[in-house]
Design a protein that fits this description.
The chain has one domain (4-115): Trna Endonuclease, Chain: A, domain 1 (3-Layer(aba) Sandwich), CATH 3.40.1350. The protein has 117 residues and is of the alpha+beta class. It has helices at residues 4-21, 66-78; strands at 25-29, 39-43, 46-56, 81-92, 106-109, 114-115. It has 2 helices and 6 strands.
Length: 117
């Protein structure tokens, strides 16, 4: 079964690919688990902080720790940055109720960045 670090690495890859496709320039990437923000990016001459969290089905990837995100948002305000939460959910591609092992196919639930206001 995938461990917490492996789930985080998969989530980082999904979000990093999304940011790249959306035209964000990476200023800093911190792939350590719970070392926030994971991505500091620039787009349209504006600074963006992105916090990444991965989870397994049935957990809802859109749910986040409000207190943590307020802290990151307040830190971002000091730098005139917009803060985002990027929750990514994973499930076994063939049966959501089964665990995901390292070489299994998986389904991804990522609906983009959520602005933290």
């Amino acid at each position: 079964m995938l461990n917490e670090t492996e789930i985080h690495q998969l989530a980082m890859k999904e979000v990093g690919d999304h940011l790249f496709q959306e035209g964000y320039d990476f200023l800093a990437v911190n792939s350590q688990l719970k070392k926030d923000p994971q991505f500091v990016c620039l787009k349209d001459q504006k600074l963006h902080f992105v916090v990444v969290r991965g989870c397994l089905y049935p957990e809802n990837p859109k749910n986040y720790d409000v207190q943590l995100m307020e802290q990151v948002r307040d830190h971002g305000i000091k730098y005139k940055a917009t803060t985002y939460y990027a929750g990514v959910g994973f499930a076994n591609a063939y049966d959501y109720e089964r665990p995901i092992k390292k070489n299994d196919s998986y389904a991804v639930n990522f609906e983009g960045l959520q602005v933290v206001e």
